[in-house]
Amino acid sequence: MSQVQVSSESFAAVRRYSEAFCREHGEYPRCFVLTFGCQQNVADSEKLSGMAEQMGYVLTENPEEASLILVNTCAIREHAETKALSIVGQYKHLKEKNPELVIGVCGCMVAQEHRREQLKRSYPYVSFILGTSVLHRLPERLLRVLSERKRRFENAEECVIAEGVPITRESDYRAWVSIMYGCNNFCSYCIVPYVRGRERSREPADVIAEVKDLVARGYKDITLLGQNVNSYGKGREDGYDFADLLADLDAIEGDFLLRFMTSHPKDASKKLIDVMANGKHIARHFHLPLQSGSNDVLLRMNRRYDRARYLEILDYMREKMPDIAVTSDIIVGFPGESDADFEDTLSMLSRARFDMLFSFIYSPRKGTPAAVMEDQIPRAVQNARFDRLLAAQESIALSLNEPFVGKRIRVLCDGPSKTDAGMLSGRNSENKIVFFPDDGSKQGEFVEIEIDRAAPFALYGKRV
Ligand code: 5AD
Ligand code: SF4
């Protein structure tokens, strides 16, 4: 895999524009970064922020005062795209107030040609686009926009790994570490392989150095990211795989939790589960998207596993780690999903018993095989199935959380709860959300909580 190092020249060149701005206005220009979508996008935005800072911008939470707005978009479902476009539309008045404002639309949405055309044609106040595989080229793109005063909408997909991109992390105790990019699976409903390109893995030494540095700087919860982390390293001559990487990272000294997302059931290996079971730092949580409980639907989704294979890996996991929390993703209303197929999904739900489920209504994505399949399911049927799925999951989640009552668990405190005044929240190794009264515990501190109440989506308790 070809690796590129970011060049410092374009950083320095844009920095000169920021310095000129500072001479004129008495302060450096501000940059506002808005993120839609998954953790991978959150991690990408931390790179956009890092690059902006290196170019002399000061980060702001307020788009009104920004000279540079970067919108990092998601394309996984229709709703994500319409939301991003509507927000971009709201920035029109900012550009009218400040013609010098530069607006860049980045990420998965703009890797699609029809969206690039739409932005170019109907959003004249957008200055440039930048796809996911070329995010590290932000300084060059911005430099051309600033120096030529022209809009730039060309897409240049690159199948490379960019190392050395500056990162401004949002948190000083939870960190995201991308270990691989892209996806080769082409599940028939999914846009990701088209917008994030082919699978490519970072060198183990680079990942290990990054995680060691994070642990040394006091990070307590580190999540390894990839569209399919189980195929990390595929194609390497030395056979080094994700389980090897996880074992090497687990050997790092310190008090921290190691997580990873997302796994594909066809690639999740017993070797990986053995490494987890023997790990010191690896969180007792496995996110294993099922997508459907019907073998027919799984086949048409091109998932390349069936119910039996899924249960085999799940049972092995629970045999080796009886305390493991398993979470999953399910799509309802995939084209051709019959009542019987949906019943199969419900029966898998009762058999698999997920601690938490992310349920989605199928959303056709232009250019994917499923979007042109016959027998698209009417919205009313999709909604009814969605509601039944949620109801079934709620009682399962509650029954899995109830045994925590009376137990003491170790929780990483995330600070004040966003919903309950006077409460703090945090997460434990199983990634359960835990609420407890504000006793002065600090964000980023591990605390011991005795659980006194369980709900389907959270645990409640007090610090001991
Ligand atoms: N429609 C609905 N849900 C989707 N997902 C991926 N593509 C689609 C789509 N077209 C879901 C899958 C995946 C999760 C991140 O998003 O369940 O695991
Ligand atoms: Fe999409 Fe499937 Fe790749 Fe996941 S594994 S990103 S669902 S194509």
Low-confidence stretches: none
Structural class: alpha/beta
Rounded to an integer in angstroms, the radius of gyration calculated over CA atoms is 23 Å
* Helicity range: 25-40%
Proportion of beta-strand residues = 15-25%
Number of strands: 20
Oligomer state equals: single chain
- Average per-residue pLDDT, rounded, comes to 97
Main-sheet strand order equals 3-2-4-5-6
Bound chemical compounds? 5'-deoxyadenosine, iron/sulfur cluster
- Tell the overall outline: globular
Q: Can you summarize the main beta sheet?
A: 5 strands, parallel
Distance between the termini: 50 Å
Task: Count up the helices.
Answer: 14
Molecular structure report:
It contains 14 helices and 20 strands. The protein is α/β, with parallel strands linked by helices. The model has no long low-confidence stretch (mean pLDDT 97). Helix 9 links the parallel strand 11 (221-225) and strand 12 (257-261). The strands form six sheets. Strands 3-2-4-5-6 form a five-stranded parallel β-sheet, sandwiched between helices. Bound molecules: 5'-deoxyadenosine and iron/sulfur cluster (SF4).
